[in-house]
């Protein structure tokens, strides 16, 4: 029977009953193909893992983005937003690749099982055929030996046929008869073994052809599947690149709107403190009329300064006696007097205020109960008890 050329079953037959080099070559090729499938599967697994880890690393990086103003701030915000988008895209790509890996694993395992079944059937058939063939060779050798022995016994009996010793002639005839029977029995065994080998050969031919068809189908399916898998993976990566390029374009468009002059003006409007520098320090001699000692005022850095000290005067516009001459205050900051008419304090000192300054000048007049000294003290250094 002729088999189609260019196929496994038409190209890998045996020339020896005891070998199966052709089928082994086909099996070896299919196994190598499945190892190639496993290599591609491992690559896709590692690629999916790399995409997922890169996604997580991007998200972690976005937590440290700086805060800026104006157009640059918008560009940085857009960069952060698109980095988060990119992380999402990489995570989705990793998930899709992992889905294809799962499908490929199932496909490869299924092919492996089919190959093993086909291989087992053909190997079993080949072993059975080879065992019968070896037995047939033994039967043939036995038959040939018995046949030669029968011919020799017959020849010896014929030579003694006309001899003078009847007993020897009778013995030779019996030996020739026995050898002839053994030869006929060996011949029957040989014929039966040939028939058994032929039946095994026909079965093996069918199994070999079916096995080659199965392996060729598996190899064709593998080639088509892996080709499509590579195509799918390429499309996933291509789509990833397109999405990333669109994301980069958004960043570029926002960055184009960034202008250094505008950003600086935005910062000035948001954080401006004063449009004038510090005023020049003037020398004011002691005893000068209407002189006022300049004392710093509280700033925004939690440093406390006394307000400008008022003049001691009998004018009720500067000092007014409180309704309760024994109003009690507590010092919340240390204060060292700068002039003789002031009283020093330490944090926690109790002050009996006997005279309160006008609200706008921020000074009080009182007695430090710890030192028993009287004088002016800054109002923002004490709190009422």
Tell me what you see in this structure.
The protein is an alpha+beta fold and 385 residues long. The protein has four helices and six strands. It has helices at residues 21-62, 70-159, 166-256, 260-271, and strands at residues 319-320, 327-331, 350-357, 363-368, 373-378, 382-384. Strands 1, 2, 3, 4, 5 and 6 form a six-stranded antiparallel sheet that branches. A hairpin with a 5-residue loop joins strand 3 (350-357) and strand 4 (363-368). Helix 1 (21-62) runs antiparallel to helix 2 and helix 1 (21-62) packs parallel to helix 3 (166-256). 20% of the residues are buried.
The multimeric state of the shown protein is single chain
What overall geometry do the principal axes of the alpha carbons give? rod-shaped
N-to-C terminal Cα separation, in Å? Answer: 119 Å
| Count of DSSP H/I helices | 4
Stretches where pLDDT is under 50 for at least 5 consecutive residues are: 290-324
Mean pLDDT: 86
Largest sheet: 6 strands, antiparallel
Strand-residue fraction?
A: 5-15%
Number of strands: 6
Q: Helix share of residues?
A: 55-70%
Rg (C-alpha, Å): 56 Å
Based on secondary structure, the structural category is alpha+beta
